[in-house]
Task: structure prediction
Amino acid sequence: MNIHLNPEEIADATLGLLEPERASHLQECDECRTRTDGYRAPLEQWRDAARVAAVQTDSFWARQRAVISVRLHERSFDRGIRFVWAGAVAALVLAAALSWSPGPTSPATPQSSEVQDEQLLENMQAALERESPLALQPAEVLTQEMSRARNVSHRSRQGAR
Amino acid sequence: MRRKPSLATASTGLNVGTATLAIGISEDDFGEIVQLNQRRIYRLLLSMTRNPDTAETLTQECFLRAFEKRKSFRAEANVSTWLYRIAVNLARDHARNRRQGFWKKLFQSTPAETEEGEQTPEVEQLSDTRPSAETIVLAREAAGKVWEALDTLPEQQRAVFILRFIEELSIEEVAAATNLGASTVKTHLRRGLQKIRKQLELEGVK
Result:
């Protein structure tokens, strides 16, 4: 196709978006190439300027790598410190939880007092049923032993007669 | 099977068609990745921020972020495209923060904010490579006008333009680096070029 490129196509040619069939015209047509070059020239100068501005010495890049490396280690260290702190806090919480002993709980209290009361009642009942008080039990045992021994000797005397 | 990511340059292109897998990057590979990509990431960030100190800081930040996310690196793009994406996001965040005034306290004024008539660093360095005084003046003028025109573009359009022209990425690579569709990238490029042409014509740059 020998029709010259329109402004949109020249813009596309500058951007590298031109259709292949129109690109072939551009290669053959000096007029269209000149117009496209006019579009491209300031952009190429701008690109070159930007690229030259970014050129740095090898020491600049080496220093940058060193800074990146240091900052990476710093971040790892900070993360490590945070991990240690988190671990320490967790350990403290765990220790506090383990050392904390709950006081007598309300459901347990009536149960134990009931048992105690029942035991006390049983003891009182037993004490009442006993003829002598608990404190005099040894004397009572001794008296019983003495009377038993007396009965035995009395029976043996009667047997001898 | 896990595939080792390509550590090569952006010219290797996207690994289109491969499964999207989180293949990760080992710590040993990371030093090599920094060495291979630091120049292009710095160049991109310098073009986007136009401040050498900011570009240097953001380049470091880009690799720190990449290191943190290295285990989630996916095989759908090569490493340099993945780094470009991180850098574009950083530059966008930086611009947003600067607009909010936060970064003004941290960084000095950008070359765009220097007094009228002062040379921007890139133009100064450009002049070193040009032998003819007339060429220097013309190139400086043209580059400066493109920078000015570029400043008027929206953030995303500017990123697309820089990735396409300065980094010379393919449309698919620009799309991957900016997280846009290929057709959106083309639209951004066409609109961007239109605005820049208009600005250049107004300024009398042919």
The mean pLDDT of chain A is 83. Residues 111-160 of chain A form one domain. The helical segments of chain A are 7-15, 20-28, 30-53, 58-99, 108-129, 137-160. Chain A touches chain B through 33 residues (CB under 8 Å).
